[in-house]
Amino acid sequence: xxxxxxxxxxxxxxxxxxxxxxxxxxxxxxxxxxxxxxxxxxxxxxxxxxxxxxxxxxxxxxxxxxx
Length: 67
Known about the structure:
alpha/beta; 2 helices; 18% strand
């Protein structure tokens, strides 16, 4: 998987190799992409860590995506 980290809405890429993950926007409940504020996360630290919150989320939650 290649993760595309975004903080605003984008159409993304339709190739299944790519997976969108949204950071710092818990109010946008777009169902077509992952969010860094679910599961084991540090999303509350997004103001300090920016896209690193997505890397943490992927590290801690990737095992659940492989099912």
